[in-house]
Fold each of these.
Amino acid sequence: MENLKTLYSNLTSVNIDEQKKLWDERGKGYYGEYLVFCELYKKANGISKFIMNANIPVTEDKTTEVDLMMLHETGLYVFEIKHYKGTIYGKSDDATWTQYFRTVQNSTFKNPVKQNEYHISALKKLYPDMPIYSVIVFTNEECEIKITNTVQDLVVSKLSTLFPSLNTFFSNKQKIFSLEQIDSIFTELSRYSPMREETASLSESEPVPFYTYIETISAEFKAAKAETEKQTEKLKKQRKIAKISLFASIVCAVIACAIIAVASSSAYKQICDAEVSSAMSELREMEKNFEKVDLNDANNRVLADGMLTITTELKMSEDLKDTAVLNFTIKNNAKEYGIILNSKSALLVTLLDGTVKEYKLFNSTIKLSGTDDDVWYPSKKDFTNIEILDVDSVNDIEYIKITNVAIWNYKTNQQTDAVHEFEVYSK
């Protein structure tokens, strides 16, 4: 909403629309802060005021920047906000956490709990007797959190699940601050922030007429859709450029080798061969995620008997724009083997332009029927109404496969070590 953007700008001196256009690491950080601010403004229970991007003194010549502080009637809440994708693994007392992606190399980053402890230690110097609580929020919905939390009074959450956790947290704490006390602390801390004079109490919100509310949501949706389309086009161009650059590097390596082989000794030729080999390895590694798989692999004893039959229907949605709908049935024909699909099983969709989309096979719509795994022998399973977003036509879809499939041997009552992929659709 426009009034929220204005309030955020007043608190931070940041124009969120401009940051979204830039969309660098700093811009993503600001956007994550803005999303949390909006959620707090709309959903936080109790009396509260907010200070953002405050530079809290650590020593006489050193400060530490705090993403967001919420002065609440139950205490001071310090937020560390990350707009990360992927699956996040770690423990609350680890030095670093891991950001896992299925198709690219993992990365590590400093434990945000430790970062926030540093912020809180600086605030404790200013307010040694004040209860201060740490809140870690991951704002990107393409993020999955798998964190082991052993710290008392710590909240680690995605934005979508923040308020059930946070409001429960509030209800278990004693109210210690009045509005006057919150105002007094707010005035003291505001000198460390970049906020403008036009600030507002966020403890209450004005009622909005229904039609005005709907119009605002519609406008936000259109703006978000336009931004998404823009980012999609940008990613398509980047992917094409990456492919061209990689091909060019291979060509350059080959040409360089040809020149050096003529002009120099065999030692130089060996160096060139290594360069070409490295470039080709990089190309093969990139293509590995997109290569097709054979449903009946003649070299695989488990799969050679045609244990699976997969029938597929792919069509454009009648209700949703730019959305294809996938329906398919898996039938197990083998007598000795069954397949196991679990929470990691996913659909990998490759488009003609090279874009790859990944969808969890089991979600809020399609449930796992067992405790952890579904084992089929002999039976069939229907998967219906799986939506593939942002496609103009089914002709844009080149290939679909299921990943993370295990095989179960009923005679030995054991799971095979290999993890398989099965073709669902090929153009």
Note: Residues 218-288 form one domain.
Amino acid sequence: MTFEWHDWAGYIGVALVLLAFLLLQVRKLHGTGLIYQLMNVLGAIGVMMSLLAGTFNTPAFIMQVAWLLIGAYGIARGFKVRREARAAGHKVDLW
């Protein structure tokens, strides 16, 4: 069995999403933290790349697009909340 670049992108993407979820469950990451959101976004991109270059699966692709959009929303919202907290003089944590 030969692995192409898109196979690796998919496996790494899946590993990132699963690791993010595991770290959330064991309370090593916060669900609103930048690292958690980036792991999900990058994981979704990896899976999408594997679907686009390899065997395409529409439902899986739609799910990854949704995962990407939700993660991007979380990142944008997190930056907004952190900016507002800094403006109010509160200490903010990006993790």
Note: The chain has one domain: 27-95.
Amino acid sequence: MIPFCRPSVTELEKNYMFEAAQGKLCGDGPYTAKATELFRERQGLSNALLTSSGTHALELAALLCDLQPGDEVILPSFTFSSTANAFLLRGAKLVFCEINPRTMNMDPECAASLVTPRTKVLAPIDYAGVPCDIDAFRAIADKAGAVIVQDAAQGVGSRYKGRGCGVDADFACYSFHETKNYVMGEGGAITFKREKDLHTAEIVREKGTDRSKFYRGEVDKYSWQRSGSSYLPSDILAALLYGQLQRFDEIMDSRMHVWNTYHTCFETLEKDGLFARPFIPEYAEHNAHCYFLILPSGEDRNRMLDYLRAQGVGAVFHYIPLHSAPCGIAQGYRAEDLPLTEEYAARLLRLPLFSNMAEEDLAHIVNAVASFFGKAAIL
């Protein structure tokens, strides 16, 4: 079976991890500093903190939003549970929004229609590494007096109108999970538009203490400042990420080769009306995070999944919409409340995409897709 994803880890990362294991094992060691600086440079960010997961980055952002029970957060239903859990844990009311079916990102027009005086946060995501239309969400947030928490988990390396994905949000949260383009096993990062939020986040991230200032020599002892948690990753994992970020262009180029091969090979099949390929808006530069097809129906998607798996291709579906999942139903939602999200989630199929995919495997996948429709081999 050709797997859906496979992290690319070389001797470079292993050597860094071995070196890190000889020194400071816990968080905020030398490799955390190196990886953070390199991530900032690559993403064009003014600041960033590494976290122990993308989920924890979202939870940290939600804490900094100072949400009160009953405050509303507008977010897509087509996203991972972490996007919702971060705000649900703070007692917020989740207001699920429809997608734009061309990008599978949250629809700004729908989001604008959901704003009320209780709206405190807009939480768009960057599906498949295609940035959301952050300028549109900024206009909505500014008018509503709300903040933007951008779930950029899939957006490392993507750009919006030439700017790094996440630069324009109040808080942007990234993931380095092993399924992402650049990995540290479990890990993430968060960035801040306001410098004061960075200083508060340092305290929250370090169990509510000012230990980061102590390590920098800014105070002679550290103490408990406020409520917090432990959101910083081990320096060993940061060492893995540091090596990944040094290989940034190599990994990106390899993934783009796979994505572009799919996109070129499937152009004729799309013109024949057999499925829809990913759409990239003019404002966006994507990062080849994943490649998906939108089949004519959910039944077609399921038949194609079964066929491809029988051909040794690890194709998968994606999110079960949150509003129609058990926890979403417990929030008072019904499946029919977001019909576009339900329809397109059922029709979406993702193909294997990872760095250094063998050319024969890439050809096998492309030809298996063609053969499902009774077409001749393409590659």
Note: The CA atoms of residues 152 and 174 lie 5 Å apart.
